[in-house]
Design a protein that fits this description.
Elements lengths: L1 H16 L13 E7 L2 E8 L2 E4 L2 E6 L2 E6 L2 E8 L2 E6 L2 E9 L5 E7 L2 E8 L2 E6 L2 E9 L4 E8 L5 E7 L1 H4 L3 H13 L1
Antiparallel strand pairs: 1-2, 1-14, 2-3, 3-4, 4-5, 5-6, 6-7, 7-8, 8-9, 9-10, 10-11, 11-12, 12-13, 13-14
């Protein structure tokens, strides 16, 4: 009698994050990116061309991202490996570099602050928009989950970043733009 309970306990978390869509479903279900630190939880739901949450409302229009984040207005464009525009009152100009491990690095100014962030399957490391990250892969169930430290001008805090499959599967330039808005904006 213990096997069905064990099977159900294992199957429920997997089904909750990647439930198969019916064959006639019009579009994918919304998925949420999360960043947990001591006492805070930041979330943004990706639903088609829109990313929204308590502190963010951004829509994609072709190669442009427009809306608002916790830093203020967002007006970014991505073209030829560059993300340019404004986040809040600060200029953004990030350059995307692909790396041999299938990840990428973005370098430049985000929301008026110079930084560099490396995003790979096994880590998210660097500084972006005034916060630094040293996160290592903790899980790859339901997208990617990274755990480690984050610091935004104070002492480092434990942090956990979860990227849902919808974000993990994006082209690097689009993933970089969304991370620049979510993590740095």
């Amino acid at each position: 009698m213990r096997w069905p309970t064990l099977t159900l306990a294992i199957a429920l978390p997997l089904a909750a994050c990647a439930a198969p869509m019916p064959p006639n479903a019009p579009e994918a279900q919304p998925e949420t990116i999360t960043l947990r630190t001591a006492g805070t939880l930041s979330t943004a739901t990706l639903d088609g061309t829109r990313m929204f949450g308590p502190e963010i409302e951004v829509a994609r229009y072709g190669d442009a991202y427009r809306g608002r984040s916790s830093k203020g207005l967002v007006d970014l464009r991505s073209e030829n490996g560059t993300i340019e525009g404004m986040v809040g009152s600060g200029r953004t100009e990030l350059h995307l570099e692909h790396d041999e491990a299938g990840g990428f690095r973005i370098r430049g100014i985000n929301a008026g602050t110079l930084g560099e962030l490396e995003v790979r399957a096994d880590r998210v490391v660097g500084q972006l928009g005034g916060c630094s990250y040293d996160l290592r892969q903790a899980s790859d169930v339901c997208g990617k989950t990274y755990s480690g430290l984050r610091s935004c001008g104070g002492l480092p805090q434990n942090a956990e970043l979860t990227l849902p499959p919808a974000i993990v599967s994006l082209e690097p330039i689009d993933r970089a733009a969304l991370l620049a808005i979510f993590l740095g904006g």
